[in-house]
UniProtKB/TrEMBL annotation:
Residues 36-185, 199-338, 352-525 form the FAS1 domain. The keyword Signal applies. It comes from the Bacteria. This is Uncaracterized surface protein containing fasciclin (FAS1) repeats. Keywords: Signal. SMART domains: FAS1 (SM00554). It comes from Pricia antarctica. GO terms for cellular component: extracellular space. PROSITE patterns: FAS1. InterPro entries: Adhesion/Biosynth-related, FAS1_dom_sf, FAS1_domain. Residues 1-20 form the signal peptide.
Length: 544
């Protein structure tokens, strides 16, 4: 029996070390098939099992010799990474430090727990099958619908079942079979002796909970899996699938699934929503609670012996399942996706007009509207029916070239438009002479190109509200600078151009659009090229 236990321990250690190197060429054996006489030879010849080999030598008993015996044995062999993970769990710097410090008898127990009498090839395993180790303990086989095999030990709770995945199977020797696994299996006695934490992490709870599948998908889409994994002691308010379905329905026909969050801005928005559900403390108390979304808090409301949660809307989230204890905090499953004010503002913005619509509905900007049409710039400011720069499969569709041009402004690539009034355009036309009575007078290709340059000289990339204006030069979409000039003794600004003599005043500020903001001004701003053109029309009456 002692010899058998030694063999089992050796096999276990071998499996543990072999699998660690299996990430690259997992099943490679540096021996010819004729040279493999035992599972011990398989272990010794596979660089992926080097940690297992070291463990066999460190454990009590003579496991390598035992593994050369008649068998047959089935060995679940942890890879090197499995030893590294256990070392980290127990507070050691690496697997070498673990093997230098662990009790040899305890190590022998761990390794023997990985050994099953008889040959059990991967094809013969069934979901839910119990395997008796040579120690008399049981391991459980879990096989998913794709045929992926996991081996569950005493650390695996029914709610998680995140067992040791079989990553390479049926490495055979005359006296047995070796299956590579990615986790060291632990019996209950070892768990108690080493005081190992067996509760799942918050992410493991979410991943294994059927009603949180959309939440997990959202975490993956927003690259927040690492953030949740790295939580130390936190509370996660986890919206269930029905809560996400309600959110998608409220967003309208354009949002039917997470796939419709398909550009950088929308994905960032989804990420902000998720961060809003992470509270840095694992203890809930009634009142305002900070969240992982900076400068945003949720209201924790004592209700019927538990808690509800308030956001920037008028509807609170109720608790479906409370106080799920995880290794790194608590999970509260809730029935609503919480929304911070910044998200509500963004969603409201999607319902507003685009910049082109603002120009169209303002009677005092009809000449600007005519000019945009004459220069084919209407679609530039029309938000392209609120479509996004979808990458990947949509790059070849008919509208992609138009949507992705630098001159098109969408709700996630906003612009600031300085919109001259009709009166401002009339002053410009008068200055140009009798041949220019309306926008239609710009009837040659050169004149239309000039008019387009003048219009783009009124556009600044990014959304700049009046409160954000600051004195200095700003480069316009046309490539030329305008000057923001502070009016002495006031908190207002005027705008200077290449004429250098008459500045434009902001007549009406902050007309918000989903793809930017418009400020109505009382002068048509002119770049150098326009000033030169007008002066050439009538040198005696030039405006410079």
């Amino acid at each position: 029996m002692t010899k058998f236990r030694t063999l089992h321990i050796f096999l276990m250690v071998f499996a543990l070390f072999a699998l660690n190197s299996c990430d690259e060429d997992e099943g490679n054996i540096n021996l010819a098939e004729s040279e493999i006489n035992s599972v011990n030879d398989v272990i010794a010849a596979n660089g992926n099992l080097s940690s297992l080999g070291a463990a066999l030598k460190a454990a009590s008993g003579d496991l390598p010799t035992t593994l050369q015996g008649a068998g047959p044995f089935t060995i679940f062999a942890p890879k090197n990474s499995a030893f590294t993970a256990l070392a980290k769990e127990l507070g050691y710097a690496n697997s070498t430090a673990l093997l230098d410090n662990i009790d040899p008898t305890l190590l022998s127990t761990i390794l023997t727990y990985h050994v099953v009498a008889g040959e059990a090839d991967a094809d013969s395993l069934t979901d839910g099958q119990a395997l008796s180790t040579v120690m008399g303990d049981e391991l459980t086989v879990s096989i998913d619908e794709d045929g992926n095999i996991q081996i569950l030990d005493a650390t695996d709770l029914p709610q998680t079942e995140t067992g040791a995945a079989v990553s390479f199977s049926n490495s055979s020797a005359p006296n047995g079979i070796v299956h590579f696994i990615d986790k060291i299996l632990l019996p209950q006695g070892v768990i108690e002796t080493l005081s190992i934490e067996v509760r799942p992490t918050i992410l493991e709870w979410a991943t294994s909970t059927e009603d949180l599948t959309i939440l997990v998908s959202a975490l993956k889409k927003t690259d927040l899996v690492g953030t949740v994994t790295g939580l130390d002691s936190a509370t996660v308010l986890a919206p269930n699938n029905a809560a996400f379905a309600d959110l998608l329905e409220s967003l309208g026909d354009d949002y039917n699934s997470l796939d419709d969050f398909d550009n950088a801005t929308e994905i960032a928005l989804l990420g902000d929503i998720l961060k809003y559900h992470v509270l840095p403390s694992s203890e809930l108390m009634a009142g305002q609670a900070d969240t992982a979304l900076e400068e945003n808090s949720v209201e924790v409301i004592a209700e019927n012996g538990g808690f509800a949660f308030g956001d920037a809307t008028a509807v609170n989230a109720g608790t479906v399942t409370a106080d799920i204890a995880a290794k790194n905090g608590f999970v509260q499953i809730i029935d609503k996706v919480l929304l911070p004010q910044s998200v509500l503002d963004f969603l409201a913005l999607l319902q507003t007009e685009d910049l082109a619509s603002i120009v169209t509905r303002e009677p005092g900007l009809s000449t600007l509207e005519e000019a945009l049409a004459a220069t084919d710039l209407v679609t530039t400011f029309a938000d392209i029916t609120n479509e996004s720069f979808v990458q990947g499969e949509d790059e070849e569709d008919d509208d992609f070239a138009q949507r992705s041009t630098p001159e098109n402004f969408t709700y996630f690539k906003p612009a600031t438009v300085l919109a001259p009034t009709n009166a401002a355009f009339q002053v410009l036309l008068d200055a140009m002479g009798a041949d220019y009575t309306s926008i239609a007078s710009f009837d040659t290709d050169a004149e239309k190109a000039l008019l387009k340059e003048i219009l783009l000289y009124h556009v600044i990339e990014g959304k700049v509200a009046s409160a954000d204006l600051a004195a200095g030069d700003i480069t316009t979409v046309a490539g030329s600078d305008i000057s923001i000039i502070s009016v002495v003794g006031t908190d207002t600004f005027v705008i200077g151009d290449a004429t250098n003599n008459v500045n434009a005043n902001i007549a009406s500020a902050d007309a918000l659009a989903r793809n930017g903001v418009a400020h109505v001004i009382d002068k048509v701003l002119l770049p150098e090229s326009a000033v030169a053109f007008i002066n050439s029309l009538n040198e005696d009456d030039g405006i410079n």
